[in-house]
Specification:
8-stranded mixed beta sheet, DUF3530, DUF3530 domain-containing protein, Rossmann fold, about 300 residues, alpha/beta
Length: about 300
């Protein structure tokens, strides 16, 4: 009897602790206002470096660093990989901070988000039942992150987000007259290539894409032709450790550019390991040299 009473007492204490934790504001689910505030997550930076743009009545960070030294060539617009921040650690943040002495101001945008992975749950009553249907995805392909019915809607939201972001740069970049180079990576690069091919955003003077790809296989295969048909100077940087979807189209991107006689297309292979700053410096050198030469802003 004493053991039963002791067990009931422990269960009661546990229930009280859980209830208290749920009521604690520090551990409760974030409110919509708190979620919105998380988009503005660069408070550690100098105050004059952090600007905001507004998209669908929500503020998003735009990080601005002026050019340094005597050269004043223009501005580098930087769009990090999706689901990141305007100052996501790694190569893009390194470029943002170190391209300024070469005469380029840097305007770093908050990238669009991805949908969370779909939760294809199985009801408990069905766990022991033999499968009535098989998976729709091939066994040698990863399971889709997004349900098909949500995919088109979300892709449109990503494109709209980027179009609105880019449309607000003129006012912020007015202090940095000159050429415009656009530097982007991964899925963000794939999205921007698509927008440029559809003429939904204005062409920059120079486009730099790093490991470009799309999550959707059909859209990913279309990237090579979209990129090759652009008439602006393009530096296509591919790293051996890039996303498999980017590596899959790398050869075709180069072949099509040659076939369509794109005179301003260059593809280069660089190792871009996340813990290798010397590789980042090599990438920055390639960006600076190509941008100055192809924009005529030397």
């Amino acid at each position: 009897m004493a053991r039963i009473i002791s067990l009931l007492f422990c269960l009661l204490l546990g229930f009280i602790a859980i209830s208290t934790r749920a009521a604690d504001p520090a551990t409760a689910a974030p409110t919509p206002a708190e979620v919105s505030t998380k988009k503005l997550n660069n408070r550690y930076l100098p105050e004059n470096e952090v600007k905001q743009i507004t998209i669908d009545n929500q503020p998003y960070d735009l990080l601005v660093r002026p050019w340094e030294g005597k050269k004043k060539l223009g501005a580098a617009i930087i769009l990090p990989a999706t689901n990141g921040t305007a100052d996501a650690p790694g190569l893009m943040a390194f470029v943002r901070r170190n391209i300024n002495p070469a005469g380029w101001a840097s305007l770093s945008l908050t990238p669009p988000t991805e949908l969370p992975a779909a939760n294809f749950a199985t009801a408990a009553t069905e766990v022991t039942s033999p499968g009535a249907a098989q998976l729709s995805s091939p066994s040698n392909k990863p399971s889709p992150k997004i349900k098909p019915e949500d995919n088109s809607k979300h892709l449109q939201e990503q494109e709209d987000f980027l179009v609105q972001s880019m449309s607000q740069l003129d006012a912020v970049g007015a202090d940095y007259a000159g050429k415009r180079i656009l530097i982007t990576a991964d899925q963000s690069a794939g999205l921007l290539i698509s927008l440029l091919s559809q003429k939904k955003i204005a062409d920059p003077d120079v486009l730099i894409v790093i490991n470009p790809y799309r999550e959707d296989e059909k859209l990913n295969q279309a990237l090579a032709e979209q990129l090759a048909k652009l008439t602006l100077p393009i530096l296509d940087i591919q790293s051996p450790d890039g996303h498999p979807a980017s590596l899959e189209t790398a050869a075709n991107r180069k072949i099509l550019a040659v076939t369509l006689k794109s005179p301003n297309y260059r593809q280069t292979s660089l190792a871009l390991n996340l813990d290798n700053e010397s590789a980042w410096q090599n990438c920055l050198n390639a960006i600076k040299g190509f941008s100055a030469r192809m924009s005529g802003a030397q």
